[in-house]
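Exercise: predict the fold of this chain.
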Amino acid sequence: MEMLFSAAPHLWGRTPEEARDSMELAQQVVPLPHGTKRDLLALVKKMVALERAADGAAAEPQKGEEGRL
């Protein structure tokens, strides 16, 4: 992971800060016990689903607003 991060940090995030945060998160997860990783993965999947649902709801026009400018 560290070699890939050093060679191509842009693969880890859009900004240097985002890339560093992604790398730190990955480093923190690797040593966790398998059961904890499974629980964390389930939590992250739920968070992603909620984020996508919120993004989709924000992109849809509200009832009665379809023809407004």
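Check your answer against the key: The chain has a mean pLDDT of 89.
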